Amino acid sequence: MSEKGTMIVGLTGQTGAGKSTLSKMFSGHNVFVIDADVVARQVLEKSKGCLMDLVLEFSTDVIHPDATLNREKLAEIVFSDKAKLKRLNEITFPYIIDEIERRIEKEKYKGTPIVVLDAPTLYESGLDKNCHRVVAVIAPMELRRDRIIQRDQMTQQAAMRRINAQHDDEYYTSRADYILTNGEDIDNFRFSFIDLMNKLQASYDDGSYKLPYRDASEIDLDSQGRDKGELAELEITEDP
């Protein structure tokens, strides 16, 4: 294990905001990324206990005849009812969190310098408490809607159900150390990401990542002269 430890960076935001693009940029710079959505899919495929709990809650409609999860049916149920979405999270979070924490501990043991945890439900799951820094990505609703439609090949009505099932911008930004506002200029995104990456690396190198954000005076992404320690708001874009 490294004497400097492992810096955990949480990445969160609404669906369609651009988290996956940012994750890819981190991966492209040799930063280890844990994708909570991927972990969730793997857990649901392998955990018979979790699948049984979902059947007990939502009926056998959520499984195929071969006893595998019917994701489309489950999504149809939970994204039309916030209470049911809450129950889904309550059922699945313990299984998913256990696996994510296992993977984080594995990277700590290996001495991995920085680990990014890409988790749409970072706050709801309590995983933000494992993070030294949190990055929130937000974007205009219309842009998110169009991305969801294109990405998931769904109707506008279905895309809006997903958007309306989530929290507003303030929920994601109020506890974040960095707020990335997703625009449509890919060059701005690249420049902002490099700036962010450099600051995170510097914070890791000098060990200040272990301190609360506002005590880490060197962390300042604003080139316009704002006070050190303020939340940084960047322009970011996502490839369609």
UniProtKB/TrEMBL annotation:
Q: Which Pfam families match?
A: CoaE
Q: Name its cellular compartments.
A: Cytoplasm
Source domain of life is Bacteria
Question: What EC designation does it have?
Answer: 2.7.1.24
Any GO molecular function = ATP binding
Any Gene Ontology CC annotation:
cytoplasm
Listed A to Z, the keywords are: ATP-binding, Coenzyme A biosynthesis, Cytoplasm, Kinase, Nucleotide-binding, Transferase
Catalytic activity, as annotated: 3'-dephospho-CoA + ATP = ADP + CoA + H(+)
Query: Per its UniProt record, what CDD domains does this chain match?
Result: DPCK
Cite the InterPro entries for this sequence: Depp_CoAkinase (IPR001977), P-loop_NTPase (IPR027417)
Q: Where does ATP bind?
A: G16, A17, G18, K19, S20, T21
> A Gene Ontology biological process annotation?
coenzyme A biosynthetic process
Class of this enzyme: transferase
The protein's annotated pathway: Cofactor biosynthesis; coenzyme A biosynthesis; CoA from (R)-pantothenate: step 5/5
Q: Which PANTHER family match?
A: BIFUNCTIONAL COENZYME A SYNTHASE-RELATED (PTHR10695:SF46), DEPHOSPHO-COA KINASE-RELATED (PTHR10695)
Q: Which family does it belong to?
A: Belongs to the CoaE family.
Please explain the role this protein plays, according to its UniProt record. Catalyzes the phosphorylation of the 3'-hydroxyl group of dephosphocoenzyme A to form coenzyme A.
Provide the protein name.
Dephospho-CoA kinase
